Amino acid sequence: MRVKQIFIFIAGILLITGIVSCDRKRVFEAYKTLDNNGWNKDSVVIFDVALSDTIRNHNLYVNIRNKGTYPYSNLWLFLSVGSPDGKMITDTVEFSLAEASGRWKGSGIGDLHDNQILYKSSVYFPHKGNYTFHIKQGMRDNVLPGIRDIGFRIEKTY
User: Fold this and answer.
1) Contact (CB, 8 A) for 64 and 147
2) Mean pLDDT for each consecutive 10-residue tract of the chain (158 residues)?
3) Domain holding 103: CATH number?
4) Sign of the CA dihedral running 29, 33, 39, 45
5) 114 phi and psi, to 5 degrees?
6) Cα–Cα distance measured from residue 11 to residue 82, given in angstroms and rounded to the nearest whole number
7) Are 62 and 146 in contact (CB under 8 A)?
8) Do the beta carbons of residue 34 and residue 148 sit within 8 Å?
9) N or C: which terminus of the chain carries fewer CB neighbours within 10 A?
10) How far is CA 9 from CA 4, 12, 16, 19, in A?
């Protein structure tokens, strides 16, 4: 009986350690919930991030939560990155949210689907300070239904 308790205790410690250490790469991750009526074309999602690591490269991800009622299989976004020295770089990117068969990509429970999509890999941040990441929807709809949350993640590369 005593051996079983010790085994359960050690297994629990290992499980907790594994869960905590799984995300050692994460530097920043946050989500913004969008309006229930849809994502307005003029609405900008902004993430302010204080970065101090000017040595390592980083991977940048866009996290998208969409409902099963989202009417498209893709999502066009305008992403702008502002650096502490005042420079702003803007990209137009397309993310695929569904397979050609119509099956939603990512993980999900019920009618909600989560995607974490690589936006840029091995990005070097040359200056310490505050960076701003602006995300706008670039679809043709003035109000884009079915996108529930937009997130942004920065992780270290090793």
Assistant:
1) yes
2) 59 50 86 96 97 95 96 98 96 96 90 96 96 97 97 95
3) 2.60.120
4) negative
5) -105, 130
6) 45
7) no
8) yes
9) N
10) 9, 5, 11, 16
